[in-house]
Structure formats: structure tokens, C-alpha cells
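Q: For a teaching session next week I want to show students how multiple molecules come together into a single three-dimensional assembly. I've collected the sequence lines for a complex. Could you give me the predicted C-alpha cells for the whole thing so I can convert them for display?
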Amino acid sequence: MPRVVRTRVELEGRMTDELALVEGKDLPGWTGERTIVGTPTTRIDGAQRVTGRARYTQDITLPGMLHVRFVRSQHARARVVRVDDTRARELRGVRAVLHRSNLPKAPFRGEETIFREEARFVGEEVAAVCAESEETAAAAIRLVDVEYEVLPHVVDLEDAISEQAPRLDEKGNVSESGSHSRGDTERALRDADVVVDATYRTSTQLHNSLETHGAVAHWDGERLTVWESTQHVFGVREGLHLALGLPYSRIRVICEFMGGGFGSKGGAGKYTIAAALFARQLGAPVRCVYTREEENLAAGNRSATLQHIRVGWTGGRTGRISGLEHISYSNSGQGRWVADPTGPTNTLYKIADLSTKSYRVVTNAGSLSAFRAPGYVEGTFALESALDELAEQVRVDPLELRRRHATSIDPLMALRYTQKRLLDCYRIGAKEIGWSRRKRGGTPGSAEHRRRGMGMASQIWFGGGGPPAFATVHLNPDGTAVIRSGTQDIGTGTRTILAQICAEELGIGVTDVRVDIGDTDAPYGPISAGSLTLASVGPAVRQAAADAREQLLGAAAGVLEVGKRELRVEGGRIVGTSRQTTIEEIFDQLKNYTVIGRGSRFPNPSETALNTFGSHFVQLEVDVRTGEVFLEKIVAVHDIGRVVNPLTAASQVEGGIIQAIGFALTEQRVLDRATGRVLNADLEEYKVPTVRDVPPIVVRFVDVPDRRANNLGARGLGEPPIIPTAAAVANAIANATGARVRTTPMTPDRVMAAFAASRA
Amino acid sequence: MAVHVARDVDDATRAVAVDERAELIAGGTDLMVEINFGRRRPGALVAIDRVQELRGISRSGRVRVGAGVTYTQLLADDAGSAALREASRSVGSPQIRNAGTIGGNIATSSPAGDALPVLAALEATIVVRSVRGERRVPFAEWMTGPKRNGRARDEIIVAAEWESAGPKQTFMKVGTRNAMVIAVASLALVVDASRRRVGVALGSCGPTILRADRAQSFAAGVLDELGWERQAAPTETACAEFGALVASAARPIDDVRGTAAYRSHVLSVMAARALARVAVLG
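A: Of course. Below is the structure for the complete assembly, covering every listed component.
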């Protein structure tokens, strides 16, 4: 019988108490060697993806499909006085135009409609045109005449903080969003022998998912079906339910394949609502997919930050940190929340006297959206840079400094971790990079004008997952199985690892498992964000597979007329009796009987902290005359509990590091302060790393099952590998050259400026 | 949009002569970006990518590189310029090098065009042809501003020509990443030992490709003392002085890719390194 349990759920660092439905009893953890789980397994949908057979949202084409393009504000802040769509509607092929004055009520993220009276950044949606072709829609948006009343704006974080800035919010542009304090930080810093006082800045990073945001909506008169590139099919369904007032049963959301989201595709967007409204109004399928430029104006970003850190030290080379203060400001654009950079500072080390504060700053720039370890990437850059600056001043090896402050309990909640093996990560990583060869002040590089250095940094993240998450496993008469769950594979390999878990538990081969996910007609699956998919859905799939196996063995026992406990499933066969029987043979006797196993995710253990840990080590060279940075090697070691698939796990780490290299060295949204325009909303001038920017990456895992976490012993990995890289790069540059770069991306001109500062 | 696929140069020149809306397309690595971003809507296209006459490289006496020669071809077939090879290698990605042509670089005339500082330093001649006849324009007179040049609408760039300058030459570039990158600053240095001539040209440091005349004279003086044909390194002081003179020729601005100050600085560094490098080549 299903029952309700109260559970504490974490998503990207935010805790909420929720009710969750569970069924039966949770399984104990696996013991002994596994044959499928833990084995490198190529993606079960790999061939589909690389041959172009995989259908992404952008590939969906329906008969009679119409196309939507948005009219976007050209002003950073302006009141929309009047929208005249006459000329646009007269263009042949234009079917409808929606804007403030004719839009049906469609509540969206706390606003009454998707088009606001005041446009608050360049690129904000003002109207939408629906036409018979994409080209016509693109031509028609230029014929929509919008009268604006231009208002004073501010786009830059530091400009917005200043007293002279236009006030964008009644309460001011700056508001406190979080704080933590323990001990007496002021006194500790006052009494410290050495204090590092430094300011760090990180730039706005754009997600640049290969597949842009988009949706295709189809209204058949009864039911709305929406294909969307999303990390949460159920979240999109909820957004449509609220905006359109349709009951859940009349909305179906599908995301079969997806080209990346990185946090920015957490629910319905304005494109979803617009596509659905037009589809209902015009009775035709409607497609609304962002261009790259729209993607980089309006699909969210990682906030730029300004962070001040003061960290003290007492007691010479055998001393300790005495006091740490971290104050952070984030450019949230028009976003209503802050990706808090002080999370790692609050939890990574044993520091008795600590004080952190985080502020949200509103500006007339495109809003933040969650971006792979939101806040933690920015905060770790500042924290781990500052600790290295301290280590350098007090002449303590940076790795030794971190070891000395290791904590076995979560210092924020004073709870024991289910498992923490960060010290193992340090040991493995140090050996792999050859940390013992690191010299204070760096070593000569491969050319006369180059210096070589090493640096490292740690990471803490969540990824423990939790309920609610459900799955069913359907065992077919031919011995193959189908997993059904409303989770989605956002490109991480979810399909493959769920198939492995099911195959392992059920006793069949991976290739005999089909994974039917990305559909709200399946049992509920949570958002694929916060590194929680595996740890949330995986245990439910395992339970469903175990339930199916028990039912199969019950059936087999009846058919074979033996005790059920004598039987087990191995390699797709029922074994335990004198002769082996295939699953097919059992079902032959039962006339197409299908076994359906059900599984649910049980709550996490109470009164424990559930986190992932890791550290990255970087070796690089710096051209001391041009400021160019050449990465030579990156070693990544993470403790994520059990590794279900070493191959897809390594892919996650490599991908995270590559995205982190962009954050560290090349990527920054450039805004024109005078107009608020984004000067590089494309992939020509916004520089993501190319393959030639990626050094050899060595991936290691501690790979010890976390028996307290869940029935798999596994935690998530999506976010951890993007967290510590930038700080490790900055620390390696400082080791090589003595110059401390405190701003990302660490472009050659910033490196040169840091040289100049270090000489002064 | 009408697309005329030209069979030969005469066919192409006629096609652009009769249709005033026609624009030329070769590799399309610049034009298609403009079209896709909605910044340009040609009324008609004349495709010259299949014109064999534009695809040859000849080295009998003067070097002549057809306008339709791709960067991939420049890397595979030696056009007798090490600097042009180095510049070609730094262009875009393999896909772009397969499609993009040297003629396209000359036609677009971006101050950041990778091949252009090399052509400037080699003192190349641009050969253009139309139904009205053929014209030869020294590179120094070719560019008139950012993405502006002396090509008439109905003219087709058919080739670039130059006197072979020997082995002492190099191209250097600093960008914000290692591939698919537009130069923050670039530099070509050609030391033509047999003609006792030094050519220095700068990319991404002004409205056009700039020459550094004082730096050229200075380097010639250094080589007069060292011996033009010898493989001898100039002093560090001489290289630094050369670098400073090169940087003083730049007219850089702050933009999305970098600051003016950094451009000047990195030019001086690249120039000093370039002189030290080419002096020992032989």
C-alpha cells in the first residue's frame, strides 16, 4: 500500500520539507561484485544520436505547422505604450499577432501575462507573431510597430550598486538574500596574524546549449501535446496548467532527446506559452524555437558576481585559519532569486569564526537562470583563490592548508555526512598530477618566456536526490523489459544508466532493456537538475525491477512447480532448478502475461548531510610576456559514492571541465552600458572552448558506495566537475608567475594586468 | 534568389556585369554569416567556387595564388610563403579552411583577415578582372577602410601575386582561444634577403592592415650589420626596439575582443619574437 512520508528535499542548495508517496519497503544496498552496474557501458542511444535518427524538439515537424517569432525590446528599460500590429497582420502568411492588449490572461512566473508593461532588458519579449513559415514570421516582427517610453536603465553590476544608479525596485537595487554567521568573525580577523583581503569578480556566462530553447505545441481540440527541449517535462506541464488553466489530464509534455540545458530549461518558457496559446487559438500545430541570438539574450545566464573575502591566519606555519568573511553581490538581472556564491564557504572547511552575506542586485540585463552548479562555480572561484593567497602568504602548501581544515561534519547544519571522502580525492589527485614536484614560485616552462605552475581547488555540491520519483518496469513475454518513468535524459546518459540498473536487478542484459522516458504520461519523475536524476530515479527503477523480478519468480515457481525461494534470474534465464528455463518459456505457459513492477524513491536518511566532494588539479604554462595561458593537464577526482557507469561518468566530468575552462579563460557576455545591448549574443564573439583549448583530462573516482545515501549507494555528478576548475587554474597561474588574477575569464589582458599589479 | 553557377572567369564577369544585384560567392564563410544574420540580402548570387582557373598556384618566377585557393590547399600545396602557411593554419576550423578562400579574405578586407598582413608584408599585387578588362592593384592601395576596398562591384578578384621572398618570414597571432578565433592582434614579418627588404604588417590593430615603416627601416639597419643572408640572432635590445617601433605604428581600439593597450603591448612582444625567429631562419 502506498503511504505518505514527510521528507526534506534539496534542490541546488535550497531545502524544502515535502510529502512524498512511497510503496512497500526500500531495498537494502547491493553487496558483492556487480556485473553490469560499475561496468563501462556505451550509450544505448548512442547510435541513434550520431546517425541523426534521434528526434530532438527542433526536429519535430507536423502537418500544417505554424511558426512563432518574438518582437523583442530594443531598449534596456522602456514602458510599452502601444503596440500596432496592423502592418504585420497585412503581410501574407501571417496568421496572428499576440501582445499586451490582445493577449488572453496567461499567468506566468508571478506575472499576469507573458508580455509585461515595462520591458526590462534588451531582448525582452514584447509581442509574438505566428505565421505560415519561419521566414514570414521573421519578416513580420519588423512590421510590428511598438511605441516605447524609454526609461533610465542600468545594466552593470557595480553601476547598479552605486547610489547614483536609477532605482529599478522600490526597495532599491540591492537586497540581502542570505547570510550565515558562526563564532565571532570580527574578533578573529582582528586578532589574526595575517589577513588576506581581496576582491574577486566573475563575468556573466551564457549556457549556450547546443539545442536552443523551444517548443512545438499541438492542440487537437481535447488535449494539448507539447514537445519541448526541457529538463522537466512535469514542470512544463505545470507551467502550461497554470498559464492556460487546463487540467493536468489534458496536457501531455514530451522530451525524447535533448541537446543540453545546463539548468536553463527547468520549466515552461514564454515560447512554450506562446506556442500553446497560438495552437489553441488557431487550431494548428505551432513551433517556437529560439535562434542563437535570442538564446543568448533571453534564455538566462550565470550571474556576474562581485565578491569580497577577508580571511585571517594565526600561528605561523603550523597555524590555522582564524576568521573568514565572504560578502557577495550577484547581478540577477530581472531574476527574483540569487544563485548564492557563499554556499561552499559555509560548508567546505572547518572554520570556527565565519560570516557570509549574499546580495541580489537587480539590473536591466537578461536574467539569471540556474547554470550548472549555480553560485557554487562563482563562489568556489573566490573562496579557493583566497585560500591559496593565504597559503602563499603564510608559506603553507595549499593542499596541506586544505587538509588541515577538513571537516567530517557539515558545519552549517552540524550533521554527519552520509559519506565524505574528500581526503581520498586529495591523495589520488596529488599523486596523479605529481603535486610533490610543485615548487613555490613555479618552475621554468617549455620556452624562455614561459613559466609552469600547478594549482588545485576543492568542491562541495549536493546531488543526493530524493523523493518523489517513480518508475515502472514492464517485463515482456520475450524476456525484454521496458522502463517507464517521467524523467528525461538531458544528454547525460540517464537512459543508459537506468537500463544498467534495471538489467542488473532483473538479471537480464542491458541491450534487452528499452527506456521510455521524457513523457508526462509515465509515472512522475523529478527535474533533471541539481545533479539529482540518478540518485532520485535510479533507486526507484531498481525497486521496480526488483518488484518485476519477484513477480516473475512467483510465476516461474508456479509454472515449474518449485518453491519460489529456490529460483533466481541470471542472464535472462530462470536458474535454481535442475534445468535452466528462459523467461520466454515461462511466459509461453501464461499466454502473453506481462509483469509490471513498480518502484518509488524512498526518503533520504534523516539527520545526515548528503553531499558530493571532489578536487581538481591543474598544470599549465603562462606566457609571461603576452599573458596567454596554456593548459597542460587537468586531473579530476570526485567522491560520488558508487559509479554506475564509469564511461558516462567520465563524460560528465570532461564536459563539466570544458565548460569550466570557458568560464575560467574565455567566456563572458559583453554588455554596452550606454544602451544595455549584448555585444556578443552569438558564437562568433562569445568564445566557448574549442577542442584545441582542451588539455588532456584525467578522471578518477573514489568509487566507494555510499551505503547510507540510497539503495544504489550513488550520488549525482552533473554539477561537481564544473565547480573547482577555474580556481585551480587561477591558483596554477599564481604558482607559475606570482600574479594573482582575481577576475574571470582570465583573459591575456587580465593576466598582464595581474603581472603589473604583482610587480607594483 | 537567383544563383548563377559560373563555369569560368569570363562567364562570372559577364554574370555580375549584367545583373546589378548580383554578389559573388566562393567559400561563403563570410557572406553566409551575413546572410544568416539577416544583415545582407543579395538579389542574386554568382557562385565562383567551381571555376578551375581560380584554383591554381604557380611558382614559375613570381608566385601566383588563384583567388579560389582554399586555406586547406595553401597548407597542402606550398605557395612559397611560410608566413602564409602559418596564417592559413590559424584560420577558423578545418571546415572553414576547407571552404574559405584567399580571394574571400581579400574581398572581405576585414582588418582581422588572417592572410592579409602576410599579403601586405609580401607587397603582393591583387589581380582583378571585369568585362572591362584586368587591373593590378598593389596591396598597399587595396584596403580603404574596415571591410572596404578598391574593388568595383563588377570586378572579380582572380589572384594575388608576389615576388618570392625566401624563407625568412613568419606570421603571429594572439586570440582569445586556440581555434575558431578572430585575431586580437596579428603580425606578419617578411625579410626578403635577396632584395634587402623588410616587410612588417599588422592585423586587427587599425581600420586597415597597417605597415610599420619605421620598424622596417630599423630592422633593415639591424640586418645590414648582422648580414642579411646569415642566420644570426639580433640582440635582445634590438628586438625590443623593433617591437616598440612596431607597436607605435598601431592604431588600436578597445572592442569586444580586447583593449587597445593590450593590443599595443602584445604587438611589441610578437614583433620582437618575430624578428628573433626569422633572423635565424635560412
